[in-house]
Amino acid sequence: METQTSTIRKKSNPVAKAIIWIAVALAGGISLSVIALQRDEHISAIWFVVASLATYAVAYRFYSRFISNKIFGLDKKRATPAERYADGKDYVPTNKWVLYGHHFAAIAGAGPLVGPTLAAQMGYLPGTIWIVAGAVLAGCVQDFVVLIISMRRKGKSIGEIAREEIGPVGGYLALVGVFAIMIILIAVLGLVVVNALKASPWGMYTIAMTIPIALFMGIYMKFLRPGRVGEASIIGFALLIFALVSGQWVADSATLAPMFTFEGKTIAIMMIVYGFLASVLPVWLLLAPRDYLSTFLKVGVIGLLAVGILIVMPEIQMPALTKFVDGTGPVFSGNLFPFLFITIACGAVSGFHSLISSGTTPKLIANEKHANMIGYGGMLTESFVAVMALVAATLLSPGVYFAINSPGAAIGTDVSAAASTISSWGFSVSADEINTLAQQVDEESILSRTGGAPSLAVGMAHIFSKIVGGPQLMAFWYHFAILFEAVFILTTIDAGTRVGRFMLQDLLGNIWKPIGKTDWMPAVYITSAIVVAGWGYFLVVGVTDPLGGINTLWPLFGITNQMLAAIALIVATTVIIKMGKSKYCWVTLAPLAWLMIVTFTAGWQKIFSQLPNIGFLKQAEVTKQALAAGKLPPTIPTAEAAKQIIFNNQLNAVLTGIFMLLILGVLIDAMRIWGKVWFKKEELPTSEEPFKQTKISEVS
Amino acid sequence: MNSLFQKIRHGAEIMRKIGKGISNLPDYQSYVEHIRIHHPEVAPPTEAEFFKDFLDKKYGASAKRCC
Description:
The structure holds 2 protein chains of 2 kinds.
Chain A: H1 2-12, H2 14-37, E1 43-44, H3 46-72, H4 81-84, H5 96-107, H6 111-119, H7 124-151, H8 158-165, H9 168-197, H10 201-224, H11 229-252, H12 256-259, H13 264-280, H14 287-312, E2 315-316, H15 336-344, H16 353-357, H17 361-364, H18 371-394, H19 398-405, H20 408-411, H21 415-424, H22 431-440, H23 453-467, H24 474-509, H25 521-544, H26 550-578, H27 586-608, H28 616-629, H29 639-678
Antiparallel strand pairs in A: 1-2
Chain B: H1 2-22, H2 28-38, H3 47-58
Organism (chain B): Fictibacillus fluitans
Protein name (chain B): YbdD/YjiX family protein
InterPro entries (chain B): Sel_put
């Protein structure tokens, strides 16, 4: 129906269409030049919005159609799995807008919010360019192509497709990779939450309240009104807002506030216990209700942020480039190349999306032609979220940004000393400014609240309080933003632990059968404990790390996430080559090559760099020497801590090395297949399902 | 008056469907419909059973999670 009208329009007025697209392209080009060339004055956030949206529109209209028409020949007459295997449950033809919403909610997480916030230390320009260009040329392509490939194969997972199209070795390595990445991901996201909640009674109380709220919702949906998710979510949301408002009373109360004030390590241990419980308790009680609440909150707040930026049109305070492009920045270590591309991660290209694109979405898609909007368009939306996060980080005055995001090791713990250190970098800020902001958001201190969540929350509070409430409501909006981030990070942590437990049971079940039984409680407890211990270890290490934890863990996460994307692109390239479309294989091969260069350079530097703040081995060596000489820096208080740091850095180096070998293994295995097609001219069968005419005319 | 009420009900129904779709919740009514048309010999599950199966599946071994 829709395609019909558009062809009629095209026939009737091609000139008008051409003019519109030229105008869109011009708007994008002009905005991009403003962003790139403006140097002396602060520029308005509106340029970022126009530049990114115009680029997205052109890429969506032309590049995504190029991919769907030239390579895959998407056909609206070809039945999708949702129709072929319709069962009313897993395979259901779904309205394309609704499915787009589902797909976006499933791919969007904390990644696109945290990454750009950290990347802002190099200025707004490099981050913006990579978020937009990376999404259009790499991230969207990955999501879209994997969705198509899975849609043509009964909605199979990327692991299964790897096994079928490459071979058992590649498939197995891909599986191990996914498990390892999950552990790192949970640890680093846990660290983001810990840093946002430590010494913050308001935040801690509100987040703690989400647990009884979720339990209540679970009981409501199970016993009181079975399956009434909408009602339960509305009640849950109301209770959540009450928890948020009453959080201020807690924070202002002399008796209650200390009860909710904890050190980072204590919060980390609480989260580990919580993760374990979520993994062993029935899902209807805790996990499922949290998930609903989180989905609606996520979509709602992201929409609100977009509207907020459009109304307020804040000015960007951060310069286009800071001196930290040379790799000396306090927020994350390493040069622009390759570490900016590692840091931004999910906002530009995210390997995790390949799991969603080959998970539920391909089983729900009603028409092949919807794949452009859902696969390519879904990632464009996530990229836009990343642009908004960058705007929220750069609208803060740079001095304040660095006060929040620099670890204690770089700026110390005293406000005036920190202010003068940051000012000496060329970003003038006064102790007064820092203290006032802390008061405004009702926090004891905003110094060194690393991890991205607090600084994003300050940025969001700036925007929202300009629309509703003014400075009086700054504190409310700040904690609203923290709540929003923490709720969906915790949803990733609890569900991720559970998924990790199942994967482990599956892996270990091959060795000893009983451990694989998901209804045998000892097996459930043991495997849950192993998974929790895995990420819990990295979390506690991160919390106690004198360099700030995020500094070490985020790059590790970025590298693994981009490597997972590389695996997805290797699979996609293999399929395209086997389909006989080698002349278009650059569509996935080019982003793959770029990701391989970036992740291998970053991985190599993380292991072998001679700079202790970058190279894991060098850091271990430097600490070892200091320990032997009895000259430990003040950030490392005891010999015990020093030994821990030495071991952690060696472990991280080994892990990074293993990840690199893993990807290399998959790549070599896939190149074996490419060689067969290219040099031996073999025609290899793909596992694509044969054409079948659709009977669906329209999906409501 | 009556028609306004119906419009609101209809709107609420659409909102409910969208909400369910976004959180990937299966619709019990359409499942029963599917069973009735395609597998008339099978007795459809109760609504509670239907949701229990769904939850087991969604958070079971094949569940996926994102960053």
